[in-house]
Amino acid sequence: MFSKKTLMVVGVIFLVGLNIIVLSITSSRYQSSSAGKLAISLVAPFQKIVTFSIRFIKDIWYHYFSLVSVTRENENLKRALSQAIEKNNQCQEIELSNLRLRNLLNFQKTVTSQAIAAGLIGKDPSPWFKSIIIDKGRADGVEKGFPVVVPEGIVGQVIDVSSYYSKVMLIIDQNSAVDALVQKTRARGIVKGESTDRCIFQYVLRKHDINIGEEVVSSGLDGVFPKGLRIGRVSGVIRRTSGIFQEVSITPNVDFEKLEEVLIILNPPRIKFEIK
Amino acid sequence: MTICLYIFHCLWLIILQAAVLPHFSSLSGFYDLLLTLIIYLGLSRSVRDSVPVIFFAGFVMDNLSGGPFGVYLTTYFWMFATIKWLIKYFQAHNRALWLLIVAIGVLVENLIFFVPRAILQAEDWVPIFSMNILMPQFFWAILTGPLFLLFFSHFDQAWETWGLDKLKTP
Q: Quick check: A128 and B28 CB within 8 A?
């Protein structure tokens, strides 16, 4: 009835159509499967061994062959500086909260104490997507949706968990969104990733006066990230003559190229919305 | 056994790409190394040997990546099918052409990743950013892609010779 060629063309068209439908469904929301966890569990141990081996060799090189004392001193100073910056940021948050006469008794800490350290063992194989694999999983108490931070600021959010490993979507990924506010003016918006090592601050009303260099912190209203965690600094503001929002770009505080260890917050704020 | 060999190739390429290369900042913007294996399978191996490997590679990459599930599977499957179709009409076993094939492969893969988001987002930065991603990949693909294909080819020959020797040995 039909020639072989016609059947082949119809087959190819059908496959392409099916392919587009499947990709449309999977790209609309991130879904994790048990088979996916298996894939991570299969590859991650090798990644861990290789990463730790490279890091070990790098450490030997830096610590023993190249400027032993300077490297160590530098590391200590960097650590101290990170802690000082974080402390300074906390102080600023507290000061601003006090200025707004908030009740001190109801004031919630900006950074939770229940956190677990994890090492980075792999990065996203594609430059189009921004995620990392870390060496802590369900066995360590990690769950999907937990926030991941470093002293410099927010890193991302856990999107997939296997027994001993987790996948973290970075805030610079195009699918990432964090509810945030400008620390000084309290202008609120959503920080979205752009995959370009920077973010955009969307839905910020034009009436707010935002200047380059101002700090952007998490608002805590997304129910994922605790309030007051640093995200980045405003690197550009465009106010068009029309529209109710302004375009704000942000340079994240975290250097995602140099990430080695991260902190997973184990008791993130959970906001439950009840319908009355 | 052949499938196991290629799955082993997949694993070491994934580890090289996701765990080793990120440690060297000068190698940032490297292309998808598994693409060379998919191209090699398309050029030199049968559908029966290749399809399980392609599905394995796509599945693992989709799970390691933060992108939508299926994007790597799609890329690898269609890349393989296109190469299989093209070699019916072109003499692609000429090694001088490998350079071109890898470069086109990298371009096609990036188009599959880039076009949907460019259509959906329609932002000004997308074309500039895409060039920033694409150019280093092109550079590295032209420089190293044929070497990988050459390696797979030699490895295959050595593997087959070793297998035949084993059969001859009583």
A: no
